[in-house]
Design goal:
DUF465 domain-containing protein; elongated; mainly alpha; 4 helices; about 90 residues
Length: about 90
Amino acid sequence: MSNTLHELAVEFPEHVALMRHLKETDGHFARLFEAYHEVNRAIHRAETDIEPADDFHIVEMRKKRMQLKDEIYGMLVRHEPEAETPAA
């Protein structure tokens, strides 16, 4: 069992500025971002036995994290040029 946190800034370091931008400008992205981090923290707590969970529950949480990560990545790829636009 891995107990490494899978923070989005580490997973997608090339998109940190865009993630910051989308969290501020896109409500859907902000909700996905927060949901990802909630699930990620819950997985970490389960894997480190801070809040033990059975294997089935951990697998389901990992699937949810991967689904959220995929959706977030899709949004990052679609919106990439937005972060390069200078702020007014």
